[in-house]
Amino acid sequence: MLAGSNLLMNTAWYWHLKVPGKALWLVVLLSWGIAFFEYGIAVPANRIGARVYSLEQLKVIQEAMSLLSFVLVAWALFGQKPGWNEVVGFSLVGAGAWFIFKGPLG
Predict the structure, then answer these.
(1) CB-CB contact of 77 with 16 (8 Å)
(2) Does the predicted model carry a pTM greater than 0.85?
(3) By CB neighbour count within 10 A (0-12 exposed, 13-18 middle, 19+ buried), where does 12 fall?
(4) Range of 15's domain?
(5) Residues 6+ apart with CB under 8 A from 62
């Protein structure tokens, strides 16, 4: 559910860049429409996830999924494949996620 909500949110945030000639008010409304369904998935996903994960863990899962879904949306809609800079940057976020799940050090 969280992965699906992230795909919808990244689509809502970026798809309109494919249609720069459309009126801003129209693409805002359409993006809000997509986001409505995204929230319909994200809220239950977070409620269910909160039963198993801490808030910090839940947030880092969401951020990691957001980055992955961003890469998928950028690739599918715009043909932009991640380069080395993005791979390194996303890997550093992954390292941060590892520390969140590892628990207290020491």
Answers:
(1) no
(2) no
(3) buried
(4) 2-102
(5) 2, 6, 46
